[in-house]
Design brief:
Pfam family, one: AAR2
CATH topology of one domain: Serine Threonine Protein Phosphatase 5, Tetratricopeptide repeat
CATH architecture of one domain: Alpha Horseshoe
Strand order of the largest sheet: 8-7-1-4-9
Number of strands: 11
Distance between the termini: 76 Å
CATH class of one domain: Mainly Alpha
Protein name: Protein AAR2 homolog
InterPro entries: AAR2 (IPR007946), AAR2_C (IPR033648), AAR2_C_sf (IPR038514), Aar2_N (IPR033647), AAR2_N_sf (IPR038516)
Order of helices and strands: HEEEEEEEEHHEHHEHEHHHHHHHHHH
Strand content: 5-15%
Shape: globular
Radius of gyration: 28 Å
Family: Belongs to the AAR2 family.
């Protein structure tokens, strides 16, 4: 580390104290993680700004056997000391706020515990800052679950009476009889009739509901039957991510068929609706960075889905390119860094013309050129194209032409 930077971090760097963490726990900050030893007490010399802290309990007997990752975003001001405690009962971080007296006592004895604090891995700081610079403290709090911890959603257990029972065959029914009875049930005009369903004569019976339920089941598709077998689980309050919902209707109410087609091709209207749900336009890029971080670092799969949907949306806009120029400048810069960190297996091995990211980037480049965008954006686009070629060998020739499956169909009239 450069001497000047080291001096700055000693004067302004923050400290994260994590007490009671068991040996072998996976602990990480930003793009770096370790297995803790018995003397681990936290991290020092943390650059002020937004950071992502995460952990996973390890097995006592097998160090490679770890639980799912849990994490949270934490904003550090200069010289901050943030203290968290490990809860042995729950084998998780305690969400109770450590009182000020304890924090001050640790601050006064910081020199004594300094040797138990690992230095922040400054070699990752530049990469992390490029991936997270638009995630503000308020935005991270807005998008995170109410309880603050980011991990796979927890669901309420359901009572036995509410568990799906499905359907069961009646004793003594052959496959042929079952098929015939199912056909009869589909043809029955009246739901009130139960003639074929009493005394074991029907092909299928519900475990608890009456005959009308059986007839409804007999008319279900295979997919509907499978869904009926799944329990209606409800997530535990405070554990659900609060991403901005992408509108399903991509056009204004009362649009003509021609306008509906336009809004599906150019999704600037949808982007406008999402930006309106944020305090400022650049927060949409902050949400893109937030979703990517919890997927890449926190191993939270829904983060990947949301990140992917936001990338596809931003690549599908043309009219918004000029109105939200700063948004798209930061989008291009962000996606350039994200693609470098993305595991190659997510995009390699897929035929270029079949890869949805490749096709959307190509569409985005065409939109930029056709909109006659700012010269700075054009320069950034050319750099992004070069980086994508270096990473994935993706080529983007003839941006002004359509892909084969997007070309208009010409019908010759006799």
């Amino acid at each position: 580390m450069d001497g000047r930077i080291a001096e700055m971090l000693h004067q302004k760097g923050a400290t994260f104290v994590f007490l009671g963490v068991p040996k072998g726990t996976v602990f990480g900050i930003d793009l770096k993680c370790w297995h803790t030893d018995e003397e681990f007490r936290g991290i020092r010399l943390i650059p002020p700004g937004m950071h992502y802290i995460y952990y996973a309990s390890a097995s006592v007997t097998e160090i490679d056997d770890v639980s799912q990752r849990s994490g949270f975003f934490q904003y550090f001001n200069e010289n901050d000391i943030i203290v968290k405690m490990w809860d042995k009962k729950t084998e998780d971080v305690s969400m109770e706020i450590v009182n000020e007296q304890t924090v001050e006592r640790i601050r006064e004895n910081l020199n004594n515990i300094d040797r138990y604090l690992a230095p922040y891995p400054y070699d990752i700081w530049s990469r992390w800052h490029c991936l997270s610079r638009q995630i503000s403290e308020a935005l991270a709090k807005k998008l995170s679950p109410e309880k603050g911890l980011i991990r796979s959603e927890e669901f309420h257990s359901i009572p036995d009476s509410e568990r799906p029972r499905g359907i069961k065959k009646c004793k003594g029914s052959s496959k042929k009889e079952e098929k015939e009875k199912t056909t009869e049930n589909r043809e029955e005009p009246s739901q009130g009739s139960s003639e074929h369903l009493h005394k074991g004569e029907g092909s299928y019976q519900e475990s608890s509901p009456g005959p009308s339920g059986t007839r409804r089941l007999s008319r279900m598709t295979e997919k509907e039957r499978e869904d009926a077998m799944l329990p209606n689980l409800k997530p535990v309050e405070g554990t659900v991510m609060r991403f901005t919902e992408i509108p399903k209707n991509k056009y204004p109410p009362g649009s003509t068929p021609m306008e509906i087609t336009k809004h599906h091709l150019d999704q600037s209207y949808t982007l406008e609706l999402m930006i309106a749900q944020h305090d400022e336009p650049l927060h949409i890029i902050g949400e893109l960075q937030f979703a990517y971080a919890i997927f890449l670092i926190g191993h939270y799969w829904s983060g990947f889905d949301h990140w992917r949907n936001l990338v596809l949306l931003l690549c599908s806009c043309e009219d918004a390119l000029d109105k939200y120029r700063d948004v798209f400048i930061h989008f291009i810069a962000t996606i350039q860094h994200q693609m470098k960190e993305l595991p190659l297996e997510f995009l390699c091995g897929i035929e270029m013309e079949q890869n949805v990211f490749y096709k959307k980037f190509r569409e985005f480049f065409r939109n930029v050129y056709s909109a006659k965008s700012n010269q700075n954006i054009i320069i950034m686009i050319e750099k992004l194209k070069k980086n994508l070629f270096d990473l994935f060998q993706w080529e983007f020739p003839n941006e002004d032409t359509d892909d084969d499956d997007e070309k208009p169909v010409v019908v010759e009239m006799e």
